[in-house]
Amino acid sequence: MDLELRHLRVLCAIADTGSVSQGAALLGYSQPTMSTQLRRIEQHFGEPLFERHTRGVEPTRYGVGVLVQARDVLARVDAIGRRPAEEAADPCRILRLASTNSPVLPGMVARLRTRMPDLALKVSSVYATSDIVELLEQGELDVAIAADYPGLELRHPAGVVHRCIVTEPSFVALPLNHRLRHRPEVTLADLADDAWFMTPDDGAGWPGVFYTACQEAGFTPAAVHEFLGDRLLLQSMIADGLGVSVVQATLRPIHGVLVKALVGTPLWCRYLLVWRRESLTGELAETLFSSATASYRDLISHAPHFAAWATQT
Predict the structure, then answer these.
(1) Are residues 250 and 290 in the same domain?
(2) 178 and 140 part of one domain
(3) CB atoms within 10 A of CB 172
(4) Which residues are registered as beta bridge partners of 51?
């Protein structure tokens, strides 16, 4: 088999989605066709490029190297006719990693320590995505997990690169004794009279997207309490019946809290891996991304409310 650009796109799609079936959907292929393509590609290389798990696939060590070269080839093809970009510099010895309010970070860091034990990390929390972009642009960060929203996609200078880790639905957290506790899903309008706990401006579009969704549902929230703090403290206040909150779909509820999907999925959030082009080699960027996507797959495997929602969509 002669290797073609479409084969490289197959590998990248599988790596980006962490799944043969989702990679097929991304490229408009059927799953059997995608599986056949992957089998032929791996036969061409003479060894597996992905490890198969019950929750999806992850690149093998050899597969990471192939993906780095595949992305380089595709990037060069896409860049034909454009001005050449500056070549990437050597990677920094200490990787400065920041993250917005995302549960992906712990699992990602744990995988990095396993896959790249010699890599030194300096991890920090930066809530606002706008601040993350500014720190990357100024050279004070190397890579980060950031967020944006459909229709408000992240903008950044040419020296910064991003890839989407996941686009996930936003759910709501309610007290265990809430009047809607028996419903499998709720609408935003059902919660029009509830008090809301709301995180502040994240520099990417929140809470504007929330207020827009409420307006489209025909109401203005009755009461809003701004809150940016420990997730357990937030859940404790919800469990005490002090309000409800929009939450990440992978949130693990404590006793006294229910997490439910919203009918029609009016709110979505994207989590992104964002980095300075000159700070990361292709191999490091690929390892960071695959670690982040694997971390997210672990999160959803422990979120039965997410699985219930996914089976109905």
Answers:
(1) no
(2) no
(3) 25
(4) 58
Three-class SS of residue 288?
Answer: helix
Residue 86 domain-assigned? Answer: no
175-229 tens-digit pLDDT: 999 999 999 999 999 999 999 999 999 999 999 999 999 999 999 998 999 988 7
Ranges of residues in the chain whose predicted pLDDT is under 50: 83-92
Cβ atoms 145, 126 nearer than 8 A: no
Contacts of 6 by beta carbon, 8 Å cutoff, 6+ apart = none
Can you name the residues that pair with 259 across neighbouring β-strands? 173
The whole-angstrom separation of Cα 41 and Cα 58 is 16
Give the pLDDT of residue 86: 43
Structural tokens at position 61: 């060590």
pTM (2 d.p.): 0.75
Cα separation of 224 and 245, whole Å? 10
Output the DSSP codes for 82-143: SPPPPPPPPPPSEEEEEE-S-THHHHHHHHHHHH-TT-EEEEEE---HHHHHHHHHTTS-SE
CA dist 141 and 161 (Å) reads 13
In a shared domain, residues 162 and 190: no
Q: At what angle do helices 31-45 and 5-17 cross, to 10 degrees?
A: 110
The Cα–Cα gap between 243 and 175 comes to 8
Q: Return the pLDDT at 313.
A: 62
Taking residue 121's Cβ as centre, other Cβ atoms within 10 Å add up to 14
Q: What is the residue range of 294's domain?
A: 94-167+269-312
**What is the reported pLDDT for 82?**
55
Tell me: do 29 and 66 sit in the same domain: yes
Q: Are residues 146 and 275 in the same domain?
A: yes
Q: Kindly report the backbone phi and psi dihedral angles of residue 175, in degrees, each rounded to the nearest multiple of 5, phi listed first.
A: -65, 150
Task: Specify whether 177 is located in the same domain as 244.
Answer: yes
8 A C-beta contact, residue 263 and residue 186 = yes
45 and 134 housed in the same domain: no
